[in-house]
From TrEMBL, chains A, B, C, D:
<dbReference type="Pfam" id="PF04819">
    <property type="entry name" value="DUF716"/>
</dbReference>
<protein>
    <recommendedName>
        <fullName>Transmembrane protein 45a</fullName>
    </recommendedName>
</protein>
<keyword id="KW-0472">Membrane</keyword>
<feature type="transmembrane region" description="Helical">
    <location>
        <begin position="94"/>
        <end position="115"/>
    </location>
</feature>
<dbReference type="InterPro" id="IPR042127">
    <property type="entry name" value="TMEM45"/>
</dbReference>
<feature type="transmembrane region" description="Helical">
    <location>
        <begin position="226"/>
        <end position="247"/>
    </location>
</feature>
<feature type="transmembrane region" description="Helical">
    <location>
        <begin position="127"/>
        <end position="145"/>
    </location>
</feature>
<feature type="transmembrane region" description="Helical">
    <location>
        <begin position="12"/>
        <end position="30"/>
    </location>
</feature>
<keyword id="KW-1133">Transmembrane helix</keyword>
<feature type="transmembrane region" description="Helical">
    <location>
        <begin position="157"/>
        <end position="174"/>
    </location>
</feature>
<dbReference type="GO" id="GO:0016020">
    <property type="term" value="C:membrane"/>
</dbReference>
<feature type="transmembrane region" description="Helical">
    <location>
        <begin position="51"/>
        <end position="74"/>
    </location>
</feature>
<dbReference type="InterPro" id="IPR006904">
    <property type="entry name" value="DUF716"/>
</dbReference>
<keyword id="KW-0812">Transmembrane</keyword>
<feature type="transmembrane region" description="Helical">
    <location>
        <begin position="186"/>
        <end position="206"/>
    </location>
</feature>
<comment type="similarity">
    <text>Belongs to the TMEM45 family.</text>
</comment>
Amino acid sequence: MGSFKGHALPGSFFLVAGIWWTGKYSLWHATRRNKNIGSTRLSSRASQRRLEIIESSVILFFSFVGILAEQFLADGPKLQLYNFTDKHWQDLMNWQHSTMYLFFGLAGAVSLIIHTTEAAPLALDRLMLAIAFFNEGFLFLYHLHGRSMLDVHVHQLLLFAIFGEALVAFLEVFHRGNIILELLRCTLTILQGSWFWEIGFVLYPPRGPEWDLKDHNNMMFVTMCYSWHLAFAMLVVSVLYCTVSWLKRTPPMEMGLLKTRERDPESEDEIL
Amino acid sequence: MGSFKGHALPGSFFLVAGIWWTGKYSLWHATRRNKNIGSTRLSSRASQRRLEIIESSVILFFSFVGILAEQFLADGPKLQLYNFTDKHWQDLMNWQHSTMYLFFGLAGAVSLIIHTTEAAPLALDRLMLAIAFFNEGFLFLYHLHGRSMLDVHVHQLLLFAIFGEALVAFLEVFHRGNIILELLRCTLTILQGSWFWEIGFVLYPPRGPEWDLKDHNNMMFVTMCYSWHLAFAMLVVSVLYCTVSWLKRTPPMEMGLLKTRERDPESEDEIL
Amino acid sequence: MGSFKGHALPGSFFLVAGIWWTGKYSLWHATRRNKNIGSTRLSSRASQRRLEIIESSVILFFSFVGILAEQFLADGPKLQLYNFTDKHWQDLMNWQHSTMYLFFGLAGAVSLIIHTTEAAPLALDRLMLAIAFFNEGFLFLYHLHGRSMLDVHVHQLLLFAIFGEALVAFLEVFHRGNIILELLRCTLTILQGSWFWEIGFVLYPPRGPEWDLKDHNNMMFVTMCYSWHLAFAMLVVSVLYCTVSWLKRTPPMEMGLLKTRERDPESEDEIL
Amino acid sequence: MGSFKGHALPGSFFLVAGIWWTGKYSLWHATRRNKNIGSTRLSSRASQRRLEIIESSVILFFSFVGILAEQFLADGPKLQLYNFTDKHWQDLMNWQHSTMYLFFGLAGAVSLIIHTTEAAPLALDRLMLAIAFFNEGFLFLYHLHGRSMLDVHVHQLLLFAIFGEALVAFLEVFHRGNIILELLRCTLTILQGSWFWEIGFVLYPPRGPEWDLKDHNNMMFVTMCYSWHLAFAMLVVSVLYCTVSWLKRTPPMEMGLLKTRERDPESEDEIL
């Protein structure tokens, strides 16, 4: 996938996922805060479940498409793992990307089962997500042998977002519905998405001069740039969260705001 | 133990242990969910304890057999630690493996004492398990000096599963009976077991050509292969869990499924 | 910023912040302990909020001033990122420092919004603080390429305090108001502040001979010196805490001290 | 302190501390379990406090003696830090050891204040202990430059026990009175103590031949030996715990053991 498109595509997916999740969790958090003013809880719970089912199906679908694309497009290995004539592994990169998609697909499938049937405990969807991200980071970790300095560096920076997300998703197993963790995960997803785009621009500049991949100053600039992407991701999440909160805000006739706020439940557990 | 058998044997043990644990915890979780429909709790608790006692005895027995085998079979050191005539340590590998078995034996012994007497706090069995796995990983960590690249790499990959399991078992000290953590531990045990088999096939191929232990492509393939083993382990655990849940499912005349599910206890603590 | 002043200035800020926080949290903890003797809770809560608003504004203001100073003073880049005539990045150091200030500014801004409006969950201010410190450490981590041994070492030691603080602030998301964590964060802030001064003295001694930056004994001394700074920070926090506690102590006519003490709430949660 | 005695002395202290702590926590745990049979809680609490005060005083005293010994015995620096005539730091090793003692002394002092007055929150004693152990490990970490392989290795192994203990003590801030964590800390203390003795025997064999400090087999043996020390420490703690439990066991006329056991409080919090 060593191309601009090859980085822009997953980047776009993560950007969309991050923005979608931000909207979803902001909406649910706003709903939870308003729960004592009329909105019947049961209905909201049913619609939440419906939303989760749709989301899981979409993830499952795109993972499947991703695997197919990696295998059968252009110079894919077409499910052939070992080239016996030339005695070497066939298109290992494509196989690795397929494996990454496989784990996100598994996470989607499990989430689908959890939210359609009674078979499995609820927190399993977060564990599967944590494993999917961990697996992505794990494969990237051993992916970088023998590349030039800046190439290695931009991919290593990506690992902060990926392993960070795996950790946050794992913490959510124990603190499900904690809005802080959810928004942090959204932020890291958007960071990952925009950084994939950045990697594309740095390694395969669509126009303009090539970057010097061995210049230490470039490395320092790229590191700082990563911080800016994080700030940008935080900004996007904040704006989205505030917009959703404002749209679903409690009517002004309600009183005792101060008291309500102090007891504002940050975790689903407190309500369930 | 540098042989195919020497890796297949522990691999088989971990596979059996992983499958056994998956069945056990799935069954108990299903029992907990059904508890309000007639199954008397006291009886189930007594049978749980009986099961734990049997399991601990089996672990203790096989650890003891393992130590004896390492010491007295074929070219074992026969409890001789230092060779004074040649001035070198006698069969350090066998001694290291004996030490690993010793810690699993200790974990079994402590678990046996905990479940037969009132002497020690319950959570100690998980701590002992965590220590046993940590010790296994610790010894592997300093085990790999001077081997070839791929040999080191396949053993390092094993460490992810081993230290992961140690961590999960340690978390279980505080979250005892959390089905998510239990299933994660089962998955990592099966991963460890199947990976031991894989190591055997890679380093000592029973038939077919030898692997090139210095080829970087082999290393990348092996890394990806580890992900597939993880996916396979997750599949095994899922199928087992669903089968057990389906066999012990709540009778269909029960109503109010939705409500029950929302309050589905994920931890033993909530019931005790 | 490679100068004595350039290290003394941030050092002073952290020292002031650490001392301020120690006083604030000590006062609030003392107030919580005394709550059952007349001090009306509502009023204290309102004044707490006012204090938070002032503090956030000050942080926001100084971050803004810091960015402006880095950009426009003396040899700053004046918001120019790339020097197209000489084809190199313009003053990367100043840009990196600006980025650090930016994140502290963001933390201040979010904290301001949290404490003036109802928009966001309370725990977000600690998360933003954790991110700001993490970002500071992250930039320092890739900041040290090609410097001499002692220069790298004194900055690496700084990372213990910075990442430690990020971790403690993150833990506070889940254990808000835990006085132990709060005082630990204060200690690490003061440690960071005084160590910035130490770095200034070691690398740019204002008078006296230069240090030999390659002598291993100097490195060992500096390591030990870091411990002393930690001890000093602990001392400052202890003295401040005891002074505040003594000033706000419970009147002596109260009885049943032993019982009160055993139930001394260490976390805000227990009261809210 | 490069001598056999220099390692045996701290080793003995840690051994005594570990055994003492095991006895103390076993006794308190047994007392908590028996609390419903007559033993009045208030009296036990007062005697616990008295015990803590004595313990803190002893730690404080020996830390002070340790600092004095390091400074003024034989070839100590006698509080002189820099040798201006020869232009080098004076006896850095002794200063480092003094610094380690200083932090244990601080932990003792703070614990003394906590248990004699009402000034500070209870959990602070564990935090101070965690900091003292962390500081010990931190100084050891930068202590090993330029030594031979085995020398570095035996000290690195020590770090597992030291940082492990720091982590456990930090966890105790949040899970105070958890018998599992307390016994784990005791085990690691004894491990540390016996390993100090082992280091003495390996690096400065009092009789018999010197060890070859560059032989890789020695390194592998020493690693395994560390596991044995851990097993030994676990054995000592178990025997002590069982003995104390047996001495303070509940009288046999009590009934309903099964039920009591299931609810056996593992944490002080549940009782307080």
